[in-house]
Predict the 3D structure of the following.
Amino acid sequence: MEQMQTPMAEFLRQSIAKIKEMVDANTVVGDPVTTPDGVTLVPVSRVSVGFAGGGGDLVKQRDGCVGGSGAGIRIDPIGFLIVKDGVVRMLNIQPPAITTLDRVIDMVPQLLDRAEAFMDKRSAPPAPAGSTDEA
């Protein structure tokens, strides 16, 4: 079934397209900045978007439409990714987590790093028996 193109549909389509232009991946993860000593800083933000719209087409009475829409965007900087010597760390700039769930979420990167180090250690070949550094 072919979708009818109405002024209201076009109005909403254009509104949503404008919001997509404002909120893209570069809004969440910013452009990297490299310091003279080789450290790369990447800003990270939390983006919240709300959108509402509505209206109707005035087909029976006359051509046109009546409607309205509104949108709100909130951008909160939350920290920086720090890349140094191939190691990536997160530097939070928000206050520490208050609830237990927030604390667990904040600890996830550290837990993943530790799990990766543990798996690397387990998968490393064992040292040959009898090889000591005694002279």
User: Anything to note?
Assistant: The CA atoms of residues 121 and 127 lie 12 Å apart. Residues 94-124 form one domain. The beta strands are 33-34, 40-57, 65-84, 87-92. The first helix runs from residue 7 to 22.
